[in-house]
Amino acid sequence: MPTDALPLTVSPGGGEKDHSLQTSDLSSSDAGEASSPTPPSPPKRKCRTIHRGWQFSFVIFLVGCASSGVILGLGLSAAKADQSQRFEKIAGDLLSSFERAFEDYQLGALWLHQAENRQMSHEEFRDIYEYMNQSGIVLEAIGVVRNVTHDEREALENQTRAFLETKFPAIFPLLGYQGFYELKYDTETFQPTRERRSEQPFYFPVRLVEPLEIPVILGSLDLDFYSLPPHRTAIDDAITGGQPAMTAPYKLDAGEVSMADSFVVILFHPGVKLSRFPHGPARDLSFFTVPLKALIERAYLPIRKQDQVNLFVFDSTSGEEDPPFIGGGKLNTLAEANVLGPVSFAKDVRLASVSSYKEQKQINILSLASREWTVVVVGDDGAFKPDIFFIILAAAMIFVACCCLALWLYTDVGRREKMNEMQAAARAEKAAINVANAKKAHRIERELNDYIAHEVCQKPSE
């Protein structure tokens, strides 16, 4: 039987009741089910979550910037300090080596003074020279000057003349030996000429000298060192003070010796005071001709070639603001050393220009014998610049890592928020479906009950 054609039935109370199922009830129930609202998502919570994500990301970004800056600052400072300490060590080693090189000459002069005696022949002195030549130091010239009175002069001159005639007969006439002599310098050309030494109460002639195979050294026999002002000052200092003394640096003429065009000093040693003669002044002095180039080469021996440092020496004894330059140089690389030698020597350098170098530098004043030398050690251009590549790389890696972490955190917060939204929407949709199903079941159950009640009421009338 169609639902819209159900008949009217009389209720037990005598009234009429329509038990027919009306289409309007179904439509209203369906409309109620269809219009069931979905719970809205909370927008404020979403904004708060995204805001916190931005905050955390920004904090991580700031931490990355601060960490990179700290690493960069500390790393650069540490790298500069490391290079500064490296230079200080190399400069200290070079300075100590320079002092030891000079002490080697000073010790050699002391040993020579102890070995010689007034009865020593030229042959015996040659033996000493050959022994000392094996020490490794450059022996430009070594010798002995003796304090000779005028009464001893003639006998000593005859002794030297006889030695030269016997040992060097071929060149003796060319030597022009005239006994004790002095050097006179022309005021215009500054060329020295030999003149017989005038009569003096005492002399300090060169009595023994080596190597005699060099003509200029052979010709220095019986040169009165006391006639030369720089030598006289050094001799007086050595005898008066009882300590080594040396002349002011001067330049050798080119072609005279192996260290031509090099500044040299004459180092005099008076020996030591013996307990047997505590008050006796030294009568004889040993001397070494010390070339500054040889001294610098010897100072560089313990320095590695990759440690590029420059050494400059100035004679500051007189206290001048701009002391004269007397030597300097730097180590050559292996390729350059095969052609130019182990050390490249500087021509002329001013102390003011060296002091203004921006590179690493160390200035020291050394008291050597009776003089003061200013020794400056300067790092080569770029040799002691800090290596900042790995420092910058580390700082950049930390910065990029923090930026990536901040970006990941921000995107992760957004992803989680979207997931939460989707889950909330799914839960809301599920809840809505459950509500709709419950309402629909309730409606169907109610209609079924109404239908059953209608059928039950219709049966008695039949």
Would you kindly provide a brief summary of this structure?
The chain has 462 residues and is an alpha+beta fold. It has eleven helices and 17 strands. Helices cover 48% and strands 18% of the residues.
Span from first to last CA? 16 Å
Strand content of the residues, in percent? 15-25%
What is the H/E order? EEHHHEEHHEEEEHHEEEEHEEHEHEEH
> Which ranges are low-confidence, i.e. pLDDT below 50, for 5 or more consecutive residues?
1-38
* Shape category: rod-shaped
* Count of helical regions: 11
CATH fold description of the domain at 87-379:
Beta-Lactamase
CATH architecture designation of the domain at 87-379: 2-Layer Sandwich
Helix content: 40-55%
Largest sheet: 6 strands, antiparallel
CATH superfamily of the domain at 87-379: CHASE domain
Report the average pLDDT across residues: 80
CATH class of the domain at 87-379, anyone? Alpha Beta
Radius of gyration: 54 Å
Number of strands: 17
What structural class should be given to the helix and strand makeup?
A: alpha+beta
In terms of topology, how is this protein built?
Elements: E1 9-10, E2 16-17, H1 23-34, H2 43-115, H3 122-132, E3 141-146, E4 148-149, H4 153-167, H5 172-175, E5 181-185, E6 192-196, E7 202-203, E8 206-210, H6 215-218, H7 229-241, E9 245-246, E10 250-251, E11 263-269, E12 284-291, H8 292-299, E13 309-315, E14 325-331, H9 334-340, E15 343-345, H10 351-355, E16 361-368, E17 371-379, H11 389-458
Antiparallel strand pairs: 1-2, 3-8, 3-12, 4-7, 5-6, 9-11, 10-11, 11-12, 13-14, 13-17, 14-15, 16-17
Helix pairs in contact: 1-11, 2-8, 2-11
